[in-house]
Amino acid sequence: QAKALLYPHDAVTINLAEEKEANVTSGEKLVELSEEEQESIRVERENARILAEWSGKEYVEKKDDTLVEKDDTMYRKIMETTVDVKLPEAFYIHKFELQIPLADDSSDNGYNLTFYRDGEVVNDSLYSSLDARIDAGVVSVNEKADSLKLVLLTKEAPEIDKVSMTLKNDFDINPVRLLFMAVLFLTIYVLWR
User: DSSP state, 34?
Assistant: First the structure.
């Protein structure tokens, strides 16, 4: 947080519905499920089949439109939406907050974020999940940048005109930490006196 004091800047909010400098592309992508997820789906199907057989009912497999099976491997269909944004100027970014309305309350939604300065990558790709309860995701950046690339990974196509990004550079004093430090220094003073 010390850099936030060195590079003071007001928060910048970018609404994609109004942003002229944003380049948005989207498409469907297949993502391979982990072995644990695949095994969980297989066990769930087998349990449902056994339960139907035991109760004397005909087993009808539930169809999951987002699940694709190829060569004994399971993949999930996701929407990948890429947003490239040129910032008005280069400045220090402490936190990045993404507001996006999500129709799906799944925990599988998230985004990758990469920042650039003078065309060069300034950070590793940052990942944050999107919490459907608050329709937002927050990630600490701590870099100076003049453009960004946001890759949204969602189950359904997002309403891109309702997406807003906030780049913050604020410094907050933690009162509990301040109290702890005061008590620590007071204790040291009393013991050394």
Answer: P
What is the C-alpha separation between 10 and 91, in angstroms, rounded?
Answer: 10
Q: Which string of DSSP letters, residue by residue, matches 77-115?
A: EEEEEEEEEEEEEEEEEEEEEEE---S---TT-EEEEEE
Distance, in Å, from the CA atom of 10 to the CA atom of 191, rounded to the nearest integer, reads 44
Residue with tokens 């004093």: 173
Summarize pLDDT for 21-73 with one digit per residue, the tens: 677 788 888 888 888 988 998 899 899 889 988 988 888 888 887 788 888 88
Tokens of 112: 């990758």
Q: Which residues of 20-51 are buried (b: 16+ CB within 10 A; e: fewer)?
A: eebebeeeeeeeebeeeebeeeeeeeeeeeee
Which residue, 12, 65, 76, is CA-closest to 38? 76
Which two structure tokens, joined as six digits, stand for 161?
């005109």
For 72, residues 6+ apart whose C-beta sits below 8 A from its C-beta are none
- Decide: 144 and 92 in contact? Cβ < 8 Å: yes
Place of tokens 């498409």: 27
**Structure pTM?**
0.68
Q: What is the DSSP string of 3-27?
A: HHHHS----EEEETTT-SSEEEEEE
Contact by Cβ (8 Å): 96, 139: yes
